Amino acid sequence: MTEQADRGDQLPRSKDIDRRTLLRAGGVLGAAGALGAVGAPAYGAGRPDNWLYPGEEGYDGAVAGFNTTVTRRPEAVVLARDAQDVQKAVRYAGRQDLPVCVMATGHQASVSFDGGILVSTAAMDRIRVDERSSSVQVGPGARWGPIAEAAAPHGLAGLAGSSVSVGAVGYTLGGGLSPTFGRLHGYAADHVSRLEIVTADGELRVATPEREQDLFWAARGGKGNFGIVTSLDFGLFGVRTLYAGALLYPAETAADVLPSWRDWAAAAPESVTTSAAFLRIPPDAPLPDEVRGRLVVSVRVSFVGGTAEGTGLVAPLRDLAPVLLDTVEEMPFTDWDLIHSDPEGPIPAYERTSLLGELPDGAIETMIDLAGSGAGSPMALVEVRQLGGALAREPETPSAVGHRDAAFTFFTIGMAPPEQAEDVRAYGARLVEVMEPWSTGGAYVNFLSSDEADPADVRRAYEPEVYERLVSVKSDVDSRNMFRLTHNIPPG
Ligand SMILES: Cc1cc2nc3c(=O)[nH]c(=O)nc-3n(C[C@H](O)[C@H](O)[C@H](O)COP(=O)(O)OP(=O)(O)OC[C@H]3O[C@@H](n4cnc5c(N)ncnc54)[C@H](O)[C@@H]3O)c2cc1C
Fold it and tell me: Which atom of ligand 1 is nearest to the CA of 227?
């Protein structure tokens, strides 16, 4: 067993720093920022040393998140160091009848608020890998980068999200759709074996397939509505390398690339997880001239297997159109974030999402009309991720993760200063609207944005019967809706 104590984690360092710098610096979406800027401890004198109040040093840093489009002005920030700190904060909020927001990284913008208590779990970033059981126990502040670095020496890897800086707990409670081998092993939530959670009464409960079964079901998919998770155990897999990366084509070739990619993906084995996106590369991105400043089609591929088989699998994609940049190759698992090259934030991101039941030619043509070359789209990214495979199968212990029958996620993101925000938001909404004919009507909860944060939007993330059960569990454990400063499921 290897253990990484809370705090002191270092960002992953690759031997291949030039390639990483080239592909990740600022991300292909072009934003730069400091990982770890959130929740840096700074204590006010004469106070509980981990509670911060407005105006005190460290408060602004602690309430700032990855996505800067929402503002959080809690009456106090609790820089939690352990589960007891979380319990104290929740009990205080209960006595004062205050709402509670939990934040690890601030990656998901939901609601802006003024008042209440913000519990920052950033410092609770313990990672304990157990090679014997191929599992890991993480604290609520642990991010995917350090988890991957801790697991790799054991030849193990988890169902990480596209970015190193996403928090594993928030991600997993929302399902956890991994671009690495999601189609092979399902959602990250499917592999959770135990969680510790502080509920609205301030109690620390342990939920497993055998204990607190309703809570265990609801928290896996229902996200932060049921309490603050202080510890999460989940399974890892024996994966050391991937044959993975992205192929970038001129946006002008989208009509050739996208239908062929869709057909290729439909025939691909479950060991392939893939997505395609219109991506606007910023002019100052640290990338080759061929792609800088261009709108491109990015086809992302991750194959669990070696170069020989991977090369054969990917060969048809390499022939679809002129390839401007090809980063698909065998890589150590710890380089997985190069598949998407997400920005590191903070960024002013406006997002919209839906789920698609199919992607026929008409849907692709519609995407090209609004997001392709000559469309004048202000969006930085318009993406479809293929689902199916193990993502479509119920796990051994059922969970609240919704809409397993969807075929693709649809997701768009635009970044804008406040004066251009309305245009970008309207364009994102329009994109989802024009894709409506192929939508299932559902959404994936991890991709919901601050513009999709009222309960009617959150309801979209679940089948009606799942939503009803979530409301029932919520009514049992949080009847006053203390945990409402998120994508909220109100009690009945
Ligand atoms: C760059 C980027 C890449 C992403 N890639 C993927 C991806 O590939 N696949 C995918 O599925 N998602 C992805 N996401 C979405 C991501 O999974 C969600 O934003 C997730 O909520 C992030 O969790 P966090 O803790 O980092 O964020 P935070 O903003 O800190 O938390 C978001 C929410 O998670 C819940 N939460 C967090 N911690 C706890 C806790 N301890 N107890 C209870 N609830 C908690 C709460 O509801 C909270 O409001 C991505 C997001 C970004 C910004």
Answer: 43
For residues 330-350, give the mean pLDDT. 94
Q: What ligand 1 atom has the least distance to the C-alpha of 106? A: 29
CATH for 127-238+461-477 (3.90.180.10, 3.30.465.10, 3.40.50.1000, 3.40.50.10490): 3.30.465.10
CATH topology of domain 241-449: Vanillyl-alcohol Oxidase; Chain A, domain 3 (3.40.462)
Q: State the pLDDT at residue 4.
A: 72
Q: Are 265 and 386 in contact (CB under 8 A)?
A: yes
Residue 223 CA: which ligand 1 atom is closest?
Answer: 47
Angle separating helix axes 418-434 and 361-371, nearest 10 degrees: 160
**What value does the mean pLDDT of the chain take?**
92
Q: Is 137 helix (H, G, I), strand (E, B) or coil?
A: strand
C-alpha distances in angstroms, 46 versus 49, 79, 123, 393?
Answer: 8, 16, 21, 53
Q: Which two tokens stand for residue 275?
A: 């997505």
Q: Note if the pTM is more than 0.85.
A: yes
Contact 145 CB / ligand 1 (< 6 Å)? no
Tell me the residue type at 117: I
Integer angstrom CA distances of residue 317 from 138, 166, 430: 38, 29, 30
pLDDT value, residue 30: 36
256 membership: H or E segment, kind and range: helix 254-267
Q: Where in the chain is the domain with CATH 3.40.462.20?
A: 241-449
Strand 241-250 versus strand 325-326 pairing type: antiparallel
Integer Rg of the chain from CA = 21
415 φ, ψ (degrees, to nearest 5): -120, 135
Residue 203 tokens read as: 């109690």
Q: Give pLDDT tens digits for 457-471.
A: 999 999 999 999 999
CA-nearest residue for atom 26, ligand 1, is: 167
- Whether 237 and 185 have beta carbons less than 8 Å apart is answered as yes
Tokens of 168: 């594993």
Query: What spacing in Å lies between the alpha carbon of 166 and ligand 1's midpoint?
Result: 6
Q: Which two tokens stand for residue 269?
A: 């084995």
Report d(CA 360, CA 390) in Å as an integer.
Answer: 22
| Cβ neighbours for 211, distance < 8 A, ≥ 6 positions apart | none
Across 239-255, average pLDDT: 98
Q: What is the CATH code for 37-120?
A: 3.30.43.10
Q: Could you tell me the distance, in angstroms and rounded to a whole number, from the CA of residue 144 to the centre of ligand 1?
A: 11
Distance between alpha carbon 404 and the CA centroid of its chain, in Å? 17
